[in-house]
Design brief:
Elements (H helix, E strand, L loop, with lengths): L1 H9 L1 H12 L5 H9 L7 H19 L3 H7 L1 H9 L4 H19 L6 H63 L3 H5 L1
Helix pairs in contact: 1-4, 2-4, 2-7, 3-4, 4-5, 4-6, 5-8, 6-8, 7-8
Length: 184
């Protein structure tokens, strides 16, 4: 794995760029271009989160970080995708693209027996990272649904309160002293 870690460090920028480009394919072409080009984190929070998250994961893999810690680096990306109404498979598919990006950048070196064995270990780490990322996505979606249900409850409660006030305003007119006269 040491040889692969060195290769990951040496080619980190190229791997990150390839991985980010693949991750942006979930968006419309114009949006993907903007997200990939604009560097200002306030003008482009999606692109910024993608850049910082993917670079942190690559750095973590090269230094032997725990997969759970690496998943935290992708949490912001996943949170954004959870509110963008992207399907779960599309929301986390970008994690698996890391395998392709690494192999593409390693080229023929990926065939070296030592590197190939390390790539199998990396594949397992990426798979566990994808699972941890999926867990994060599910938690974010649950929170989105909780917020939506809360909003519906507040809206319903508001309508019920308004109806109750209306009934109270109309009630004195039908229950007043003249109500017996009207009924007769």
């Amino acid at each position: 794995m040491s040889a692969l870690k060195d290769l990951l460090r040496d080619r980190a920028d190229a791997i990150a760029e390839r991985w980010q480009k693949g991750a942006l394919e979930v968006y419309a072409k114009d949006a993907a271009v903007l997200f990939g080009r604009e560097k200002d984190p306030f003008a482009n929070p999606v692109g910024h989160a993608l850049r910082t998250g993917t670079e942190a994961v690559l750095e973590g893999l090269a230094s032997g970080e725990d997969v759970e810690k690496l998943a935290e680096a992708l949490a912001e990306i996943v949170q954004m995708r959870a509110v963008q109404e992207v399907s779960p498979s599309k929301a986390i598919a970008f994690v698996f693209l890391l395998k392709e990006a690494v192999r593409a950048e390693l080229g023929a070196k990926a065939n070296d027996p030592v590197v190939a064995a390390a790539l199998l270990t990396l594949d397992g780490q990426v798979d566990r990272l994808a699972l941890a990322t999926f867990d994060c996505y599910v938690k974010c979606r649950e929170r989105v649904y909780e917020l939506r249900v809360g909003e519906v409850k507040r809206s319903f409660s508001g309508v019920m309160n308004m109806l109750e006030r209306r009934r109270e305003r109309e009630a004195p007119a039908s229950n007043g002293p003249d109500s017996e006269v009207r009924k007769s």
